[in-house]
Amino acid sequence: MILALERFGVWLRxxxxxxxxxxxxxxxxxxxxxxxxxxxVPALLACGVRLYALRRPRLFPLALxxxxxxxVVVLTGLFQPVIGGDGADVMVExxxxxxxxxxxxxxATRPVAGAALAALGAVVYVLGDVxxxxxxSPDLVPLVRMLIQVVLSRAAYLIxxxxxxxxxxxxxxxxxARREMEVAAARRAIEREYLATLHDxxxxxxxxxxxxxxxxxxxxxxxxxKDLEAMSAVPGFETGSVDLAALLRCVPEGEGxxxxxxxxxxxGPLAIPSGPGLAIFNGVREAVTNVARHAGVREAELRAxxxxxxxxxxxxxxxxxxxxxxxxxxxxxxKGSIIGRMHAVGGSATVTSHPDTGxxxxxxxxGPAGASSAGNGAPATGVPRPPRAQAQHTADVRFIRxxxxxxxxLAVLLISLVWQFTISLRRLxxxxxxxxxxxxxxxxxxxxxxxxxxxxxxxxxxxQIPPRVRGWSLGSVLAVSAICAFTLPPxxxxxxxxxxxxLVGWHALFLLADLRVRAFAAFLGVHVGLNATAVFLSxxxxxxxxxxxxxxxxxxxxxxLSVGVLMTRLLHDTAPAAGIAAAREExxxxxxxxxxxxxxxxxxxxxxxxxxxxxxLVGLGxxxxxxxxxxxxxxxxxxxxxxRRLFAESDAVSDPLLNEVRACVEVAEHxxxxxxxxxxxxxxxxxxxxxxxxxxxxxVILGRTRSTARVTVVWTPHTVRxxxxxxxxxxxxxxxxxxxxxxxxxxxxxxxxxxxxxxSVWVEAGWRxxxxxxxxxx
Length: 778
What we know:
Layout: H1 2-27, H2 33-55, H3 62-77, H4 79-83, H5 85-106, H6 111-132, H7 140-211, H8 220-232, E1 241-243, H9 244-248, E2 261-266, E3 271-273, H10 274-295, E4 299-307, E5 310-317, H11 333-344, E6 348-353, E7 359-365, H12 390-430, H13 438-460, H14 467-486, H15 504-511, H16 517-536, H17 543-621, H18 630-648, H19 656-670, E8 674-680, H20 688-703, E9 708-715, E10 719-726, H21 735-743, E11 751-757, E12 760-768
Parallel strand pairs: 2-4, 8-9
Antiparallel strand pairs: 1-3, 4-5, 5-7, 6-7, 9-10, 10-12, 11-12
């Protein structure tokens, strides 16, 4: 909007200087034309440079632009003492008056510069008036009119700007509310999609393993590998923690003559993000395969240790070795599977080897600092576009346009009323004896005041003017134009007694502000035509008189028409452009919010799950873990229960905690376990991170129970406790460590107590409710 106003001011002033200057030369005597042209040409050149500066603003400093504007005013003011006469007075008043108004828009963001130029214009006009009429006191009426015009133009700008900013703030609030709705909807949709993926892949596989033995498990390794790939596609998976030591223990050594016996020296556990962890695991697996194929030995050493915030893994053998530089480019085992894979996750890998000296491959994960370019810092690829209906965009544009329309109508109404009850009222009162029918002129004045009052009543109540009321009002304004034109002496047309000529256009602009400018231009054409008809009916004016009338017409109607053009641009061009820009910015913000929230959701949900599920799938996928082993089946049962609890988080139920407990119970019942569930007290709200820590011990114990268990959920006014008793829990030496790994994912302040007597295990997780809960539990 600021740029549009600046362009409007420069173009308006330049056009007025050109047209009014030319008409002023026509009105001058023949002897004064060369001198008038010598003043007009530099003023036009200054205007031309100012117009060019709009296209290349960086080439012109502000001080130079201000000087050019001041030069136009000074050169125009010199017309008055040089040419003299009524033509010079009218021309200078028109150009300087329009210029001081235009300066308020050209320098809208620098009001001091605009005020200084306005003051310079007033000084130039007064000096020109004094020099052109020595011995006479200057006419202060035009000076007062200029002051009123400057104040009104600045006030109009401030009104429109204030309402435009208010519209921006309101649109931002509306957009923020809509963004929250879109983000919530997108999060729910994405979560359903990923939970369905886990349900159909890893969860189903682990549940099948936990339920049976003595069957053909040939389908399991490839399916486990595919499930691992499906989990890896879940956003946030790459940041979930996994024990690298557990993964490295699952590296397949091969079978028969291709078996490579690994001597492992691992300082564990080594907790790193699952993305780099799987990259290292797959790289080590590829390197072990290369040892079996090319090294000529059947033994290798695998070492792993921590280094700062990262980890280092090294595989070495004493085989025949090779020259890494001589490996053909088409061979991608080292370049792609080992080195490239680590670079993709923000780590590094090196291969050191020489003929007959063996080979050493080293993987380095540099910690969170080295991973800034991968994982979390990756762009939001794969984030679905937020739903943005065309109706919403149209509503935004309509809202912005409505506020701009309200601001411009309010500004034009202010100009109309102030102009009518200051300048026009004074002219009407002072020149009562000039009019052919003074009562008709007075009635016309009252009619315009009534039109403004009716329009203001609708505007201030925030309502549009009805078409019928607008039609009658426009008809009344045209009637005023005709009455004033035909009851005024022709020689006084557009002169000082003609109070209505420069006023009726503002009333019409107020009424036609919401329409295209051609409607207002048509009205001005009729208005000028009525006045021209009244003049020509009394005889054709001289060239000088016609030039003076032309200058007055440009000064009044030309300025009003340019304001109408500006309003049309603001309402029909700037408002849609602002709506489009706001929509694009809002879409970007929404996409970023969806990405951020999606990453946070998956980090919270899958961090602990990844640490225990990934080693299982890796071991099952590469044949290191056997589904016929009871311990493996029990671990699969625990992970299946944890996943079912995760799925239950998304259910819309009145008691989420009990719903998640029941999800774990259902998994245990599918495995043939009889579970007795009891609930005591009145349920209340429990944060999701607390529910995770309360239910996880239940999932672990139920997953390792062989026949019978009892689960109890107790609500008291101050605490929530979830306990499980297993009569024949399998050896759970890893249960407590796994539960602690899950507990480190959040700061839920959940306490866990555990008692073991033989095969009977009792575990209770408790959470103390905040004192401000306000829920009456019994």
